[in-house]
Each structure stands twice: as structure tokens, then as C-alpha cells.
Amino acid sequence: MPAAKSTRGDIAIVGYAQTPSLRDANPSEVQLLVPTVTAAIEMAGIGRREIGFTCAGSCDYLTGGPFAFVSNLEAAGAWPPISESHVEADGAWAMYEAWMRLQEGDIDIALAFGSGKSSPSNPAEVWAQQLDPYYLAPLGVDPVSLAGIQARALLDSGKATEEDFARAVVNSRRNAASNPNAQLRDADASVEALMAQPYFRAPLRKHDCPPISDGAVAVVMARGDRARELCARPAWIRGMDHRIEAHQPGVRDLTSSPSTALAARKAGYDGGPLDVVELCGTFSPQELILLDALGLSLDGDTKVNPSGGALAGNPIMAVGLVRIAEAAARIIDGSANRALAHATGGPLLQQNLVCLLEGE
Amino acid sequence: MTDTAKEHMVMEHLVTLTYHERLTENLNRYADNLLEGRIIGAKCPSCGRVFVPSKGYCSLCVVPTTEADELELPDTGIVTGFTIIAPVNYYGQKKTEPFVYASVLLDGADTTLGGMDITGVAHSDLRSGMRVKAKWKPRGERSVEAMSNRGWGGFGDVVESFEATGEPDADEEAFKEHLF
Ligand SMILES: [Zn+2]
């Protein structure tokens, strides 16, 4: 077999679509996906049968049925049979697999999508199940309690204050005000008003936590000249990488995210100027930890979460790919030339994915 | 290690996950109609296939279907595939005698109803292609409580069974694409 020519830097996002982030969507998960996948394909201007590979991300524990992910595939149009795969993870990891598949060089177009409805279940019940089955899952440790432990560690380390948490929320609420897909928006959000709120799970206040959300997102990628044909200004994927840390939160320094820093480096981020960063910090302290891992801050030249980020809408299993789609949107519309997007999985930023996007 | 120590290596961890959701709009209309003794499906505006119940979209054309695409179907059809289950006494199994689990293709439909009981015929005489008609439960005994958005058990508990009509069997052409 001849050695494949590396096409790593020659793949771009040329189409994307998402549903609004909704507290309680009546349509089924696949019904959310059908118009979303169609819209992404229409934006790319391709025929459905031109897609060489499809990858989906979702979670059967959220949907509440074994093999629930299979019906989601109907949104891609799976008859006659197509080449496809599924990850039990955020759609960002589905995109990573599709991006890897495109690098084989024998297909030109790939589709990735992510979807999830958190509204039918109790997140405290469901997400306790992703913890280790001997020590933490039997305790029923829920995401908000875990995030509270992380927030406390961050305060104790002196790296951040509760006002800093509130500043991340203000940034989110204000940016989300101009994002029709965001769930929580407030153009008038202020640190003073947020700090006056009572604790929800100390030291976290309710606004430091993400909303419960339903939603779906889809992204179309194309290679080389095909991407240039389909899109006036493709969002070129300069690199994408994901790294993982220990599963057990108790053996990690919860106040830093070395896996994010490493993934960013491996994705080609050299610390140079960025126009936009879209972070999947689902609790406000996590946003600060991620900014720190990337050498960025809320006050720098890089626009942080112009969409509002995960604090403004958290459709789990879509929310990470939404970050990439939002970053790509800014490249494609010309408002940014270099953007970095992040997705996460597992308890307390256990696993992190970074995608570096650039205009031509 | 003593046996006692080994006993302590066993840990019981029972998990309950509770889900609350409303039926999708298309299934909600379907359920309401079943309680009234009517079966509705949705006809794809693109390919004309009739889905029972409606999925809210056509899974082949990937186009949404709406209430305007819904139509009533007769409660008659044919058995496509079937199995006869000899129940074992597992947790939750209420049946004690062998029973039928059949797929029924309603006249005018392109998808089958699964898990139907077939009566009026000896188990040994069951055949694919056999004509059947719904034997509805009395109105007050019909229930759609077990219906979910998840594709399994999409007929609720509204009929006693589908009963063999005694009409001539349908030709294999009528069901060979619908065995499951
Ligand atoms: Zn159709």
C-alpha cells in the first residue's frame, strides 16, 4: 500500500447547524437532529450521498434506552447503507473521528453530529454513573457537588476568587444576549448583582452552574479544493487533539488542566494571537481553569466565548461540538482569522479536546 | 485469605435511573387516536411511504412529517413474521403459557406493528401472510401508559390481539420486505 499523503492541515469546516439550547424540548432526539443535519448539509451545498463518512456522538444513559443512538443515525439518511460510526461521547469526539477518517485521503466529505436531551432524566442520578463504581458512584456524587469541590480547591489555591467566578458568568450572559441559540441571556448582567445571590452548593451560586439543556448540532467537513469549492472562506482545521487525565478526581490537581494545555500544544496552538476562543467550561470556575491552561484571560485581546459558552446553554453531548461550530462560524463569516475551540468529557475536565481553526 | 474476607469483597450497588418525558407531538396524537379505536400513520410527502406510528419524519428521505401528513389506517392487515415464546420464569414475566409475538403489517402501511398476539388460530397453524383484524379492548380498558418515545412497545395496550379472519393468505410479495 502506498504511503498516504498527509492531509492533516487541509481539512475544513464548510457547513454547520445547531438547534437552540432548550430547557425541555418536546421533539425526540432524532427529531431534533433531522432538521439540524439537513441544515448543515444545505449550508455546505452538498448532496447527502456525497458524504463519505458519518460519525455521531450521544449518550444512551441520557436518552434512557439501550442502543438509543441507533435511531439518531436516521437523521443522516442511512439507507442505502452508509459508512458510519458512533462515539458514546460529545459530538466533538465524533468530529475528531471523522477528521481522522478524512485524513485517509480517499474521501472528500464527512459529517459529524452530536445530540442530547438532559431534560428527561435527573443529571445527579445519571452522571454519578460515570464515576468509578467502587468509591464514588455508590456515594451518588453528583456533578454540582463535584464542581463545588473543584471551586473550593480553586479558591483555596488563591488562583481565583468568587468575584472571578461571577466575572466569567457576566461575560457569558452578556455575550449570550446576542446569540439566539443561547438559553440564558442577560445583556445587563453584573458582578454585583450575581454576588448578591445566595449559595446553591457553596462556594457555587446557581449562575455558576450550567442550565439543563436539550439540543443538537451538526458539522460538515471537506478536504482541500473541495472545501474551497463549497465555501468562500472555509474554517481550516489546523489541528485537533484530545488528552485524558486520571479518572479519579481525588488524584488530580483540580485547579489546573494539563490535558487541555497539552491538547492545545498538540493541536498546533503555539500561544500566538487568537481572535476567538470557545471553551466548554460547564461551571464558571472551569472556564477560569481552562483560560489559565491556554495562557488566556477574560481581559485579554482574545474574545472569550462570544456565543456565551456552555454556561449559557449546555446540551450535553452536543455542547462541545457547538463550541467548534461557533468558532468555525466566526472564521467563515470573516470576523475572526484564528480561533480555538474546546470540548470536555468525564468528571471535572477529565478529558479535553482542542481544535485550532484558521482562515486561509 | 479466609472465606470471611472474601465475602467482604462483594459489594452491592443498585442503581435506579428515572426518566420523565412527554410523548412527542406525533406520538401523542397517535396515542389519543388509539384510545378512540383509530390507528393513524404518517405518509412521507417525498416517497409516499406510510409509517405507523409516525416518527415525525421519514427515515429514508430524511424529511419531517407533520399532522397534515397523517392519515387513518384500517385495523386489518397481515402477519409478516412471528415467533412463539415459551416463557421462562424470569423477573417481571407474567406469562406462563406459550404465546405469540408477531409483526403485523396493516393494510396501507409500510411499517409493521411489533409484538402482537395472534388469536383465532392454533399456534401450529400460524403463517406469514395470514390475514388478521384488531380485536379492540373495551374503551375503558385501553391504555397507552406503556408507550414511549423510544420505538419499542409503540402500540400501548389497546387491543386484546389481532385475530385471524379466515380470508385467503396474502401473497409473499406483500410481506417479503417486512418480515421483521
Ligand atoms: Zn420518504
- Uncertain residue segments of chain B: none
Instruction: Give the overall average pLDDT of chain A.
Output: 96
Helical segment tally of chain B? Answer: 2
Quaternary structure type: heterodimer
Gyration radius of chain B, to the nearest Å?
20 Å
- CATH architecture field of the largest domain in chain A: 3-Layer(aba) Sandwich
How many domains, in number, for the residues of chain B? 1
Backbone structural class of chain A: alpha/beta
Short description, anyone?
The complex is a heterodimer of chains A (360) and B (180). Chain A is α/β, with parallel strands linked by helices and 360 residues long. Chain A is built from twelve helices and twelve strands.
Explain this structure to me?
The complex is a heterodimer of chains A (360) and B (180). Chain A is an alpha/beta fold and 360 residues long. Chain A contains twelve helices and twelve strands. Chain A has helices spanning 29-44, 60-63, 68-72, 91-102, 123-126, 143-157, 162-176, 191-195, 224-230, 258-266, 284-293, 319-332; strands at residues 11-18, 53-57, 84-87, 109-117, 199-201, 204-205, 214-223, 235-244, 276-278, 303-304, 338-345, 351-358. In chain A, the strands form two sheets. In chain A, strands 3-2-4-7-1-8-12-11-9-10 form a ten-stranded mixed β-sheet, sandwiched between helices. In chain A, α4 (91-102) crosses α12 (319-332) and α7 crosses α11. The radius of gyration of chain A is 19 Å and the shape is globular. By secondary structure, chain B is mainly β. In chain B, 9% of the residues lie in helices and 28% in strands. Chain B has two helices and eleven strands; from the N terminus they run ααβββββββββββ. In chain B, a hairpin with a 6-residue loop joins β1 (39-43) and β2. Chains A and B meet through α1 of A and β4 of B. Zinc ion binds at residues 44, 46-47, 49, 58, 60-61 of chain B.
